[in-house]
Amino acid sequence: MSWDTLALGIYTIGYLAKFYQEAIESVEARSIESLQVAGASWLQVAQYGIFPQVLPLALGYTLWMFEYNIRAASVLGVVGAGGIGFELVNYIRAFEYNKATTMMLVLLNGGSGWKRGNTNYSKSFNSNRDGG
Fold first, then answer.
1. Is 26:53 a contact under the CB 8 Å cutoff?
2. What is the pLDDT, as a whole number, of residue 10?
3. DSSP per-residue letters across 80-126
4. What angle do CA 47, 63, 21 make, to 5 degrees?
5. pLDDT value for 122
6. Mean pLDDT by 10-residue block, N- to C-terminus, for the chain (132 residues)?
């Protein structure tokens, strides 16, 4: 494992921990209290009160960090650290502009397509539950 991979990994762990902590803090206390009053166990409170509120945010943050890391790794490769950017530079140096353009388009737009899909678990869960 190279130092650049280790640096990206530590950076990612720090940011995701911060984002996950904020997502967990944003859970509505009323839903947890309602489940506790109804006699739900701690596992049921987590399953029906916490996870449906945290999972969409956690998934969004995770995909965002994945896309960020792909772009950062490509920049690191361009400056000589190897990886995706190294291949991009090789395509440009070999005058294979079609491959270089395709690779840049995939890097710049690849992760954004995932965000356009239905990644909002709670929205689809609630619309199915309400019959819509």
1. yes
2. 92
3. II-SHHHHHHHHHHTT-HHHHHHHHHHHHHHHHHHHHS---HHHHHH
4. 50
5. 45
6. 79 93 93 93 94 94 87 77 75 84 75 53 48 48
Two structure tokens written together for 26: 């944003």
**Structural element, H or E, at residue 17:** helix 3-25
Distance CA 107, CA 44 (A): 40
What are the structure tokens assigned to 107, written together? Answer: 């890097």
CA–CA separation, 86 vs 75, rounded Å? 9
- Residue type for position 62: T
The confidence score (pLDDT) of residue 27 equals 92
Two structure tokens written together for 118: 């239905």
